[in-house]
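Usage

Read records sequentially. Each one opens with the input sequence:
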Amino acid sequence: MAAYSIDPDLSALTDTQQPAASSAGYFYPLSGLTALSGRVVRGERQWLARRIPPAPIPFISRQREWRILRRLAASRLAPRPCAINRRWLLLEWLPGDTLPATEFLARRAELIALLTQLHRQPLSSYRLRLLPLLWHYWQQCRERHPHWLRRLQQLTRQGEPAPLRLALLHMDIHPGNLLTQPLRLIDWEYAADGDVALELAALIGGNDLNTAQQAMLLAEYAQANHLNLAMLRRQVRRWQPWLRLLMASWYQLRWEQSGDATLHQLALAAWRQI
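and closes with the structure output:
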C-alpha cells in the first residue's frame, strides 16, 4: 500500500491527540468511491482521516458527520470522533476486518440487532430530504440522461412518502462498512434522520438482495421493531424509485467531478434502471 506524508492541516489535528509525537507520520489512502479517507500512522498511534471534499458533494458535510458521531460516542455503534478542522475530520481507528460479503446475510440476526439499536438512538436534527437533494444533483450535472427530468418531475408530483417511523439512519450499509467482532458501522457521511423504510430500501438495493432475502430481512426487522409487516413492505416499495434516481444522480455527478471510468460505468448502469 502506497504511503504519503501527512499534510500540515492533518498534522495539526494529530498534534492535538499526540502533542509529544516526534514522528512525522504517514497517510495510507483507503479504497472507496469518494477516495476521501485514509489511515494515519504516527509513531505507535493511528487514526482514520476523512477529507473535506475539495469539490462539494451534495449532502456530504464533515461538520454534520462530526456532530452525529459525537452524539453516538456512548453507543459504541461508530468510531469516536477526535478532532476536526477546515480540511480534515479525524476519527479513532477501529481495528478489525470488514465483513466478508458471504457472511452478510449469515449474520442477519446481528445486523437486525444493530439496525434496531441505531434506529432507537436520539434524532440528530439533520433531516434527510430526498426531493431537494435530487433537484440539486440535476442542477449540478452537465450531462443529463434523456429520462432524468421526466422521472424527477414525476417524483416531484408524487411527493416524498410520509415516514412510517422517523429515526437516525446510516444510509450506506453494506459489508464494506461493517466491522466484525463485534458488528459495528463505519463511513457515516450520509447519516441523517429519515424513515426506517428508506434505510431498509437502501440496504436492499445496495446489496442486491433477492426476493426471498428481502422477505426475511423485512419480516425479522418488523418483528424486532414492532412494525406491521405489510405496511413496512409497502413503504419500502414506495422509496425504491427515489433511491434508484438518487444513485444514478450520485454516480453521474461524481463521474463528472472525478473523470473516473468506474464511476462512469456505474452511472450508465444506473440510468439503464430508470
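Summary fields computed downstream for this record:
- The two ends are 38 Å apart (CA to CA).
- The CA atoms of residues 166 and 195 lie 5 Å apart.
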